[in-house]
Amino acid sequence: MSSEDTTPGAPPEQLALIRETVRRAKPRTWRGAHLAEELPVARVVVDKGLLHLDQYYDYAVPVAMAESAQPGVRVRVRFGARMTSAGRREGGELHDGFVVARLASSDYPGVLAPLAQVLSPERVLTPALLKLSRTIADRYAGTLADVLQLAVPPRHAKAEAEPSPAPLPPPVAPAPGSWQRYPQGPEFLAALTAGHAPRAVWTALPGPDWPQEIALAVASTLAGGRGALVVLPDGRAVARVEQALTQLLGGPERHAVLTADLGPKERYRNWLAVSRGSVRAVIGTRATVFAPVHDLGLLVVWSDGDSSHSDPRAPHPHVREVALLRAAEEGAAVLLGGLAMTVEGAQLLRTGWARPLAAERPVVRETAPRVRTVEDADQARDAAAQAARLPSVAWQAAREGLREGPVLVQVPRRGYVPRLACERCREPARCAHCAGPLEAVGAAEALRCSWCGVPEGEWHCVECGGFRLRAQVVGARRTAEELGKAFPGIPVRTSGRDSVLPGVPAEPALVISTPGAEPVAEGGYAAALLLDGWALLNRPDLRAGEEALRLWLAAAALVRPATRGGVVVVVAEPTARPVQALVRWDPAGHADLELAERAQLGFPPVSRMAAVTGSPAAVADLLGVTRLPDGADILGPVPLPPLRGQEQERALLRVRPGQGGALAAALKAAQIARLALRGAEQVKVRIDPTDIG
């Protein structure tokens, strides 16, 4: 077994010299093994995601595996074995891996271990996917093995044994349809059909048409003979686009769906259809961005500000960044779309990397609902509607809307009463066991800690000795209970994390939903109430305003246009920038202002940033051994809430544009150096963190 350092940056002259000096004799191997006559060395990436092992390893190819052990196939290898003086293998564990190349010889001077097994002759790791995965690993200071776990789904033998259907000929280019509402829309579709690679940041109009518009872009790309890939934030969005594609293309044969809900067999079967070239279009959630689409012509990312697009698993790549890197490498078009616009999208427009794709203001006014504002303070002063926790404006909008159809009520918090405080001194109610916040899970149920789940039956305030509580935050269940009493006889439906409604009929009803779980109403909602805006705007995070606007736009877009009486009432400070952007329905203007403000402060995306999290001693140790690029700033460290009883700190590292690669390489090298010291505490490193509050 041998290794090849994959760290980029070695001079070409040095690499050429190494290759010339490598002995071309057959490699030595374990006793009793017979090697392949041609290319007897297999270079393997081993599925062992440790930073100090992020390199390729050479193995000998037994003659029995000479035909099957081709680049891209899955294999099993013995990792960490050693040879005894008698020439026998000793120790080592079996690990999965991928063959990345077949070589005539190895530069390793020792004895090579043979491949243990070829798991499948299916070539699942293409050269393009390997290159993309290596780029993502380097960008995010991670390992190639970790990225490949995200990019290549687990093998399912039965699905692999099934033949994939024959590819269908390209469809006929569709008419522009609702893309005609955008001045550059028909031109964009024509460029896709012609095989060009336009790049656009799309501000979609409110209403139900965006799934059909994505389907039209995909069909136009297929008509030009190239493949298309669409990444959406959740399964409900995938279902809407899938339905639109099926209707437009006359059936499900031309596209594949990749979501975790399909199950391992069905998902792998669909992935294989894409990998084998049977299907040229694929839609799905986060991991779909790595799907090996043949001759990729279009990458679509919908709602790139949604947190679901940031992978929680190491090395935490973001779908938008993977898509942009892949499009640049493969010469594909990019459509970065959403009802809102992120500051990253605004920066792409400002730098000229992409062009805007938006409707004219008169068209926006025709399709958007009317938006009214109410201050949070008005709710306490308005005695006429205190029973329903609604200001008069919201009360009136709900009552009038229920005459015409369903009314959506967005509540930022799930549960019943997730935050409580002492009625006398306003001290937050804490658990006596772990000091976590107490919550009320029901009207007649005991209080419970939201951290450890321990019931609290005899609470009293430790500051003033009081025994009476008040609600700091009211959840969706409590809101549904209050509105049910305020509007007797009206059905009340709830949609949240535990149970998400796919849709609601056009009949009058109150639909209480947490952000992101709003069901689609048949014909659109008659009105929408966006409650407790302070809970979204007052979060201590750089993206609080951007995220609040995105969630509000997503809910408001489900309401009928103002020309049909649609009304949205947002309960928040009217002068806040996101509220004003919602009133004007101007997400692009809000993103421009946010970008300008961050440029003045030096925050992402104008700069590149990394977050380092761990115990105070471990964070200080890592920062001490990291060779940061010139001009790098260290912000912090600052304390974080304890993790499993241990103190935690986080430091933010900021560098200028163009230094992101150097920052990632420096942090990776520092992590490897610390791993060489036994007993070094683990530190979590995250490049481009989504939360830097």
Briefly characterize the structure:
With 693 residues, the protein is an alpha/beta fold. It is built from 20 helices and 32 strands.
Structure description:
The protein has 20 helices and 32 strands. The protein has 4 domains: 123 residues, no CATH class; 188 residues, Rossmann fold (3-Layer(aba) Sandwich), CATH 3.40.50; 230 residues, no CATH class; 80 residues, 2-Layer Sandwich (Alpha-Beta Plaits), CATH 3.30.70. The protein is of the alpha/beta class and 693 residues long. The chain has a 7-stranded parallel beta sheet with strand order 11-12-10-13-14-9-15, with helices on both faces. Strands 1-3-2-7-4-8 form a 6-stranded antiparallel beta sheet, with no helix packed on it. A 6-stranded parallel beta sheet has the order 16-28-27-17-25-23, with helices on both faces. A hairpin with a 6-residue loop joins strand 19 and strand 20.
Q: Tell me the Rg in angstroms.
A: 28 Å
Major β-sheet annotation: 7 strands, parallel
- The percentage helix is 25-40%
Helix-strand category: alpha/beta
What kind of assembly state do the chains in view correspond to? single chain
Low-confidence stretches: 3-11, 13-26, 383-388
**End-to-end distance:** 46 Å
Q: List the strand order in the largest sheet.
A: 11-12-10-13-14-9-15
* Structure annotation, total helices: 20
What is the tally of beta strands?
32
- The proportion of strand residues reads 15-25%
Task: Please indicate the count of domains.
Answer: 4
Mean pLDDT: 85
Shape: globular
